[in-house]
Amino acid sequence: MRRLKPNWQRTHWLIAALFVVVIVLEYSTPPPYVFGYLYIGAVLLASGQWGRGATRWVTAIAILLTLLNLFIPGIEPITAVTLANRTITVLALVITGWLSDRIQRYEKAITHQHAQILAQAQLARVREDFVSTLTHDLKTPLLGALETLHALENHQFGPVTAAQRRAIAIMTRSHQTTLQLVETLMDVYRNDTEGLCLQRVPVDVVTLAEETIMQLTSLAASRQVHIRMHQGESDFRQPCWVEADTLQLQRVLSNLISNAINHAPRGSLVEVVIRAGGAACQVQVIDQGQGIATDEVAQLFNRFYQGHSDRQAKGTGLGLYLSRQIVEAHGGTIWAESRQPQGAIFAFRLPTQPQGDSLMVRAFKDS
Predict the structure, then answer these.
(1) Of the candidates 188, 126, 211, 212, which has an alpha carbon nearest to the alpha carbon of residue 315?
(2) What is the homologous superfamily of the domain 200-366 according to CATH?
(3) How far apart are CA 126 and CA 87, in angstroms?
(4) For the purposes of burial, counting CB atoms within 10 Å of the CB of 22, is it exposed (0-12), middle (13-18) or buried (19 or more)?
(5) For the stretch 177-188, what's the b/e string if a residue is b when 16 or more beta carbons lie within 10 angstroms of its beta carbon?
(6) DSSP secondary structure code for residue 149 in this structure
(7) What are the domain boundaries of the chain?
(8) pTM of the shown model
(9) Which residues on neighbouring strands pair with residue 344, listed in sequence order?
(10) What is the pLDDT of residues 28-43, one digit of tens each?
(11) Cis peptide before 32 (omega within 30 of 0)
(12) DSSP label at 156?
């Protein structure tokens, strides 16, 4: 406040001095000599240091003094040239005042928007720090609980009955699901802030899909859902080689197949169809569930979006979002569509390398 008050007073005295100088020049010379243009300096000073209301008052006073010089001191008659000069000066003052008002309005809007952007950025940083801390703190006790459950299952604390073994299995599966959600959440925020770092190696998508299905067999059994993998019309197993990060690509397959299992009715079939053709390898995961509403298709791969269809298991809405991050980082595309008469298709396509044989050779050498 101590700094603002001297600045305000300095501007006040500058405008007053400018008005005095212009009034002396205006009223000591004949009316055809117009010095009212100099009032523009006072208008600009008021606009830069004062508010919009003060700027309007300064502009109005400058216009009034410019017009009064036509009649005061009233020694010479008013001619058309004098009237035209004064009119042009008044218009210049009006335009200056109007532009100053608009500039102040724009500056106020820009300042407000800038403050909002800073607040949002700060909120995003706080949220990311909170999520990072929370997920890290959750992961440690979950790992400890899983180790304890494994120790109980291995009879390290005494004999375990069949009923206790079933309870331990349920608790282990629940803790593993929670741990997977925590790791997914950590990966999503890490990918958003730092980007996805890929370790690309030659990968056979068919083999990777078979391994993923084996890992999800227990989940499918608990849902009473059957999983079948095939390669379209072909009855022969044909490798589909891509250059990809094995772990990340397996996460995509796991997310899509798990999503299909959670949507599929009990006793139904989930199909994993892999087709290699041209320069792309396409994977389709097909379920016989409720399907996808038209207005949901564009939002399915957004963060935290879960949809409105019935599920047998609720998730966080991060699995499909993470899958999109991974597929797009590989230069591929991912999409979803409804299947007639019922069900849904989740698919992605990855580019294959022209030198398919050389990829297999490299894979065998790496192994």
Answers:
(1) 188
(2) Histidine kinase-like ATPase, C-terminal domain (3.30.565.10)
(3) 58
(4) buried
(5) eebbbbebbbbb
(6) H
(7) 4-117, 134-194, 200-366
(8) 0.55
(9) 287, 338
(10) 877 777 877 788 888 8
(11) no
(12) B
